[in-house]
Each structure stands twice: as C-alpha cells, then as structure tokens.
Amino acid sequence: MTNRGFNTLKPGNNYSAQDLDSFVSTKDVLLLSNNGSQLFTEPDREYKVIHEFEGFFEHSSQEGEKYYREKKAYVVEKV
C-alpha cells in the first residue's frame, strides 16, 4: 500500500514499514510489533495490522498509579 497520509490503519490490511513510519510520524498513536526494534529497518517489508485498540492502560513508575490513555494502539506482525 503506497497511500501516504492516511488517517487510520485497518485491521486485516498490510502496510509497508515505510507507510507505518510515515503514519506514526504524523499521528499520536502507539504501534506494537513482533519485529522488535527492527520495524523500520527494511522500508519495503510488509506488516499486517492484527488488532486496533481505542486506548490502553499505562503504569507510572514515578507515581505508582495506572492511567487509561485514550490513544489509538495498533498491533502489527511481519507478513
């Protein structure tokens, strides 16, 4: 998919690492990948969006509290 500038990722669709890089650079989102820190090392590698979440819980180690963050989160895996 070469459509740069899209507003959301759709579960079930494949995206290149380059598309994902462009997406997270322009949106306030969380991206989880099974490819560790190598997600953006191969721009043409394809990833499939497995899950989309409206938010997530985050633990603050400084305050010891858990907070719900209303922030889109996506889980992607290598194709």
Tell me what you see in this structure:
By secondary structure, the protein is mostly beta strands. The chain has one domain. Helices cover 13% and strands 37% of the residues. The chain has one helix at 17-26, and strands at 14-16, 30-33, 46-53, 56-59, 66-69, 73-78. Strands 1-3-6-2 form a four-stranded mixed beta sheet. A hairpin with a 6-residue loop joins β4 (56-59) and β5 (66-69). It is elongated and about 40 Å long. The mean pLDDT is 91.
**Residue-averaged pLDDT:** 91
By DSSP (H or I, 4+ residues per run), the number of helices equals 1
Helical/strand content category: mainly beta
Radius of gyration: 13 Å
Distance between the first and last residues' Cα: 13 Å
The helix/strand series, from N terminus to C terminus, equals: EHEEEEE
Q: How many domains, in number, for the residues?
A: 1
Tell me, briefly, the overall form: elongated
Give the strand content.
Answer: 35-45%
Largest sheet, if any? Answer: 4 strands, mixed
Number of E-type strands:
6
Q: Strands of the largest sheet, in order across it? A: 1-3-6-2
Low-confidence stretches: none
- Helical content band: 10-25%
